[in-house]
Write a structure and sequence with these properties.
This protein is an alpha+beta fold and 203 residues long. The chain has 2 domains: 42 residues; 128 residues, Ctag/Cox11 (Pfam 04442) (Sandwich), CATH 2.60.370. Helices cover 21% and strands 34% of the residues. The strands form 2 sheets. A 5-stranded mixed β-sheet has the order 1-7-9-5-3. The protein is globular.
Length: 203
């Protein structure tokens, strides 16, 4: 009479451990992969749908202009740590759907040193982001201003005529375009060997 083998259960257990470890590795790899693409995917989703008041990017004027008029308000903000004065030249303007409009914002560096800022933006109400198309804008571009420098920055946009076909926007009368400038940390420039520049305490 032969004794039962004790090797088979151990071998089965080892195989199960290998399978579980492999599955865990695949899950971890997938999660890491998703973390790298999550931000680009979210950005693409917002640009495509206008989610969260994200405006659209256009490369030219629409083919038609409608009679319906919308009031577009302009808002300007400065985040803490950036010594700038930032304001629109006009607080609001009435535009027809499909009409291409150019407006200007002014910014002044009130510091006694060079400073760098970068603007983010959104529109309100958030549901109209998909209908607000910008042809030209200063947003997401670093702006470097010398001490006391003043700069005029243009925004070229239109409100998509397709908005007229959205029943949810029938009562819409006003859109607010809001910009906020944030400080950009300055990069310390390397000092050439042998120069006699005075040391700077700037970070």
């Amino acid at each position: 009479m032969s004794l039962p083998s004790t090797h088979r259960p151990i071998r089965t257990s080892k195989r199960r451990d290998v399978v579980v470890a492999g599955a865990c590795g695949v899950v971890v790899a997938a999660m890491l992969g998703m973390s790298y693409v999550a931000v680009p995917l979210y950005s693409w989703f917002c640009r495509t749908t206008g989610f969260g008041g994200t405006t659209q990017v256009a490369h030219g004027a629409p083919s038609s202009v409608l009679g319906r008029t919308i009031t577009v308000r302009f808002d300007a903000n400065i985040a803490g740590g950036l010594p700038w004065r930032f304001e629109p030249e006009r607080t609001s303007i009435d535009v027809k759907l499909g009409e291409v409009v150019t407006v200007y914002y002014n910014v002044v560096n009130e510091a006694k040193r060079e400073t760098v800022g970068q603007a983010g933006y959104n529109v309100a109400p958030p549901t109209v982001g998909g209908y607000f198309d910008k042809i030209n804008c200063f947003c997401f571009t670093e702006q470097t201003l010398a001490p006391g420098e003043k700069r005029e920055m243009a925004v070229v946009f239109y409100v998509d005529p397709a908005l007229a076909g959205d029943a949810d926007q029938d009562d819409l009368n006003t859109i607010t375009l809001s910009y906020t400038f944030y400080p950009v940390r300055e990069q310390r420039k390397p000092v050439a060997e042998g120069t006699s520049d005075k040391p700077s305490g700037r970070i």
